[in-house]
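Researcher: Here's a chain I'd like modeled. Treat it as a single chain, no partners, no ligands.
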Amino acid sequence: MRTSKNAKVDEYIANAPEPAQQMMKTIRAAIRATVPEAEEKMSYGIPFYEYRFPGFKGRLAYFGAYKKHISIYAVPRRLPVALDRKLEQYKAARATLQFPLGTKVPVSLLKQLVKLRKQEIDGRE
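Model: Modeled as a single isolated chain. Structure tokens:
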């Protein structure tokens, strides 16, 4: 059953330019597939996923559409060196990845990041 929170995410995606819509649908599906129990919400005006804990403690991932790129905010605090190297081309900041509009989202990398972020949250008992 769709909640109003899901409807807001649907609306956010629908209001973005076509290339951004497709990319965000891919990102959304990857996050949902990796951590299906995460709650989908809007925060800071962009889609957000909260896992296990309310507030800062449970922040799993965000994504947002911008004029020339999609940003994903889901980078774990500690990354294996090999994964960090694979992400270098996308890094915009410490915990932010950017993908130019119209490019392919590296789904397997995104799923690895979300899984690592989930493990970090699980360790915060």
